[in-house]
Amino acid sequence: MFKKIFKNMSQENSENVEKDLTQEELINDAENTAETTAEAGIPSAEELTEEQKLREEIAKEKDKFLRLFAEFENYKKRTAKERMDLFKTANQEVLQALLPVMDDFDRALAQIAKSEDEVLLKGVELIHNKLKDTLVSKGLEQVDIKAGDAFDADFAEAITQIPAPTPDLKGKIVDVVEKGYKLGDKIIRFPKVVLGN
Q1: Mean pLDDT confidence for 44-60
Q2: 181 φ, ψ (degrees, to nearest 5)
Q3: In CATH, 141-197 is 1.10.150.120
Q4: What CA–CA distance (Å, rounded) separates 136 from 120?
Q5: pTM attached to this predicted model
Q6: Could you tell me the residue ranges of all domains in the chain?
Q7: Residue 16 has what pLDDT?
Q8: Dihedral angle at the C-alpha atoms of 54, 59, 62, 68, nearest 10 degrees?
Q9: Cβ–Cβ < 8 Å for 155, 187
Q10: Phi, psi of 158 (to 5 degrees)
Q11: Contacts of 124 (CB under 8 A, 6+ apart)
Q12: If residue 158 lies in a helix (H) or strand (E), which one and from where to where?
């Protein structure tokens, strides 16, 4: 009976030793695997997630930087364009105030041309040309529109309609009452025209 008990105990101990050996072997195998992967340069799961987190953070920061840089470039372009537009139209009010003077010169030239005083005509023409050249140098241009042109509401203002003197002037400009002017691409005074119907 003692033999049976001793035998059973020895079997249990050997099984436990085998279990312990198996657990020890598993631990050793795991350690060996970790060492092998570390030696081979393969990161563990924790290191991989840390590295991935850092890569994601770097990608986010890079994206933020690129967006900020793009916004700044757009801001620089927009402000440069606004500044150029401001320079182009800065003297708009002064030029608009001088337009009636140009109209008066045109009417004066038409009346003086009817007289036979050549010296007076020449003197007024010189002053008129000097004023006109000065305004042109500041960016003022006359809107090119004349009788016989098709009417376009984007470039002219119709003040009245009259019966067309000829059939080919129907729906077209019959007369330009007041000249129009533009500063750069912006029309600062629309020409006033008479339409034929």
Answers
A1: 82
A2: -135, 150
A3: no
A4: 24
A5: 0.54
A6: 54-90, 92-138, 141-197
A7: 46
A8: -120
A9: yes
A10: -85, 125
A11: 105, 108, 109, 112
A12: strand 157-162
